[in-house]
Specification:
Length: 270
């Protein structure tokens, strides 16, 4: 179970392009440029947008549409007309042969004429599917951090709280960025991005510090002894006569004199 959603991660990644600098912008499967009309068009047709259907898709490539009548068109993938990706009509919803592009009737307005053309680019540098898997990777990192103190049997929540949500959000954003821009060296990675991974770990640490009796959970997480060797053999103490094969268990003390054996006695007390 991931502790946050991809929408949470996208919110954090958006800060990389908020200033208008798209050099380090992360674009997912559904990203495309606004469709444009060719300058030679004579009709009034307008294509307002498209839909990228496949969450496994990532790429930056040109698509263009050529009309053969007022309603009929062909979608081409890449430069020129060598690669057709299906034919359609403005009067019905269209899905490309590749299954990547969908254009609904509501996206068309005006009336094209034969010979009119429209173009757009799909513009993604990571697939939505891969991004979700990176999010799962970040969840595993956080679970590993939690596992230092608590196991599944001792989890103090039924649903992840906001600290864990943000821990995964920051760590997964760091993983996605460094994966997409793997060619950058450490100095080229924005300072903000370099801080995200450690910030995520700090959120996980803050969550752990909020758990009452955290150390009790830690002790419950691991066995006290690594083996069942006799205690005397394990610590290297020679067995006294009469205690051969002792396992180191503590017996209940019932002798009256020893009832307060664990309390410090005052000097001079009777």
């Amino acid at each position: 179970m991931a502790y946050c959603t991809l929408d949470d991660v996208k919110r954090l990644l958006r800060v990389l392009s908020i200033s208008g600098n798209t050099q380090h912008k992360i674009r997912f499967s559904d990203s495309y440029t606004v469709p444009e009309i060719y300058s030679a068009n004579t009709g009034t047709g307008i294509l307002k947008g498209v839909e990228v259907l496949l969450n496994t898709y990532a790429g930056n490539e040109l698509w263009h549409i050529t009309f053969s009548s007022e309603t009929a068109f062909t979608l081409y993938r890449g430069e020129g007309t060598a690669s057709s990706d299906g034919t359609g009509s403005t009067s019905s919803n269209f899905t490309s042969t590749s299954g990547i592009i969908k254009i609904t009737t509501s996206q068309w307005s005006g009336t094209p004429v034969a010979g009119d053309q429209f173009k757009f680019r799909t513009d993604s540098n990571v697939s939505t599917k891969d991004a979700n898997e990176f999010l799962e990777d970040a969840t595993i990192v956080v679970d590993g951090k939690l596992g230092e103190f608590i196991s599944d049997d001792y989890l103090p929540f039924s649903t992840p709280n906001n600290l864990l949500k943000r821990a995964v959000m920051y760590i997964s954003s760091s993983i996605i960025f460094t994966s997409v821009f793997s060619s950058l060296n450490a100095e080229q990675v924005p300072t903000l991005v370099r801080s995200w991974y450690n910030q995520g770990i700090r959120f996980a640490d803050l969550f752990l510090s909020s758990i009452p009796g955290k150390n009790i959970h830690k002790y419950a997480r691991y066995a006290r002894f690594a083996s069942r060797e006799p205690l005397f053999a394990k610590v290297g103490i020679k067995e006294a006569a009469g205690v051969e094969d002792a396992k180191g268990e503590i017996e209940t003390i019932s002798v009256a004199y020893d009832e307060d054996y664990n309390e410090e006695e005052q000097i001079g007390s009777t």
